[in-house]
Amino acid sequence: MLDQTNNKVIETMLSHRSIRKFQDKSIDTETLQTIIECGQAAASSSFIQAYSVIRVTNSDTRRQIAEAAGGQTWVEDAPEFLVFCADLKRIEVACIEQGAGKLEGNTEHFLAASVDVALMAQNVLLAAESMGMGGVFIGGIRNNPLLVSDLLELPDQVYPVFGMCLGWPSIDPDVKPRFPVTTILHQDHYAAEKVESQIESYDAQMEAYYQSRSGKTRVSNWSEQTAKAVQDKKREHMRPFLNNRGLLIK
């Protein structure tokens, strides 16, 4: 078995928790720039680097985004709040300058940009966590992407994918148990016949975790939470919104 005791990268990755409460301590500009630079070091599809990050410091803008995201007050309170955008604007300008024409809203380009920004953001959070900071992703900004886009003056070919709160933790929550690697890692083919039993086992583990964490007052499991999260957050406004931004047309 791999010895993880002296591997700080693995130790940091495996100790990830979502942090929503922060110390009243700012992140200096040099540190912020460093973690953004770490984000840029992530892999990028064909090196197109199809992402931009908006640092939101205006308190009223944060308040409106927090409300749109479902009343997530940590968006207002966090030392830093960043909005990660899939950005094809620069790519379109380059294409036009090279005589290759404007982008036409191809699904492949949309996917490449969305993957690019996700990889970049994960590097940002990992870099921050390696320095003792913590954070949480805010997918709730997609509740009202038009409002967020207007507030941040995002042009066509750019859309807000998620936000991120960052700061120095004032809490120390437990690490949530993930699915076993044997559930996630398949050998040669997808083991569909095992899915139901794997979910049942994991649900039991998560129910025990929630009860131990919350003083036995919470009865829930992964399936219950996942079904609610997915079926209650269909966000059917996203496709027409993306179409209107010149994205995901064909």
Describe the structure.
By secondary structure, the chain is α+β, with helices and mostly antiparallel strands. Helix content is 46%, strand content 11%. The model has no long low-confidence stretch (mean pLDDT 95). The radius of gyration is 20 Å and the shape is globular. A four-stranded antiparallel β-sheet has the order 1-2-4-3, sandwiched between helices.
- Mean pLDDT figure: 95
Q: Strand order, main sheet: write it out.
A: 1-2-4-3
Number of strands: 4
Rg result? 20 Å
Task: Give the helix/strand layout.
Blueprint: H1 8-14, H2 29-40, E1 51-55, H3 59-68, H4 74-77, E2 80-87, H5 89-97, H6 107-130, E3 134-138, H7 145-152, E4 158-167, H8 181-184, H9 195-213, H10 222-231, H11 238-244
Antiparallel strand pairs: 1-2, 2-4, 3-4
Helix pairs in contact: 2-6, 3-7
Condensed summary:
This protein has 250 residues and is α+β, with helices and mostly antiparallel strands.
Summary keywords:
alpha+beta
